[in-house]
What does this fold into?
Amino acid sequence: MISFRRTAALVALAVAASAAAQSPEQIERGRASYEYWCAPCHGPGIGNNGAQHLPGTDALRVKYRGALPALLTERTDMAPDLVKTYVRQGITVMPFFRKTEIDDTELEAIAAYLTRNNPRPDR
It folds into this structure.
């Protein structure tokens, strides 16, 4: 069993490696792709059914009960591999996205955008 400290250290290394690979251009491409593919469910705003939030945002609001932000763009704790896994495999009612819809380069950019606010460990 991997200890909590070891797991935390591995996550910190993954976050640091992803932060180093992010460029402003990649983050901007990721923002544009996120707005196109993800924001219709995970963005701010009122849902089509009159719900207070869009469906993805509302699902995360209910799941985290205020412990984490419901808006993905406000999160500071997601690892790029987590983003990629959810996009490729889906989760609960979120569909998966094929490489013919979101290719690997676009997915890397989305992951860079969603992890841009993660704290960066001292170098």
Remarks:
- The chain has one domain: 4-114.
- The chain has a mean pLDDT of 86.
- Residues 4-114 form a domain with the Cytochrome Bc1 Complex; Chain D, domain 2 fold (CATH 1.10.760).
